[in-house]
């Protein structure tokens, strides 16, 4: 993502609105219509503003202990009708509980906890991660 890792900083992504717009442009350029947005960790800064503004344009949302969940209110989350799978490893004792506390206000959510997995649960337990993800995807309309 722009502004993270070794990528050069980009002024557009300084604000939540800019990050939402950036993600919107990416999805448009890729020609994606009603994708499922998978959002691990730092990508929450992009995914959450998009979800809150354009959740109706997503077929589903899969937050994996994303950052930034405390930046929004329970009321804002309650307004989102996007089917959501809140996914995290039970050994992620810092970020995952905070994310769960905030994201559980999404009305169309379910939770999958991967035993023995840390913050990057998809790396720690890839088979369990893919099983949970595919199960969620199969239940979408």
From TrEMBL:
Subcellular location field:
Cytoplasm
State the species of origin. Edolisoma coerulescens
Task: Write the record's keywords in alphabetical order, separated by commas.
Answer: Cytoplasm
Question: Which protein is depicted?
Answer: ABHEA protein
Please state the gene responsible for encoding this protein. Abhd14a
Domain of life here? Eukaryota
**Is Ubl conjugation found in the keyword set?**
no
A GO CC term assigned to this protein in UniProt: cytoplasm
């Amino acid at each position: 993502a722009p502004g993270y890792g070794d990528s050069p900083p980009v002024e557009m992504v300084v604000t939540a609105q800019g990050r939402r717009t950036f993600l919107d442009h990416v999805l448009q350029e890729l020609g994606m219509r009603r994708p499922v947005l998978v959002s691990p960790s730092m990508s929450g800064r992009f995914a959450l503003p998009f979800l809150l503004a354009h959740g109706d344009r997503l077929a589903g949302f899969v937050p994996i202990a994303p950052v930034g969940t405390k930046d929004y209110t329970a009321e804002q989350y309650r307004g989102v009708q996007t089917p959501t799978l809140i996914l995290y490893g039970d050994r992620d004792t810092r970020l995952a509980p905070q994310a769960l506390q905030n994201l559980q206000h999404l009305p169309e959510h379910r939770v999958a906890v991967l035993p023995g997995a840390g913050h990057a649960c998809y790396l720690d337990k890839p088979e369990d991660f893919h099983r949970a993800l595919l199960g969620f995807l199969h239940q979408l309309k």
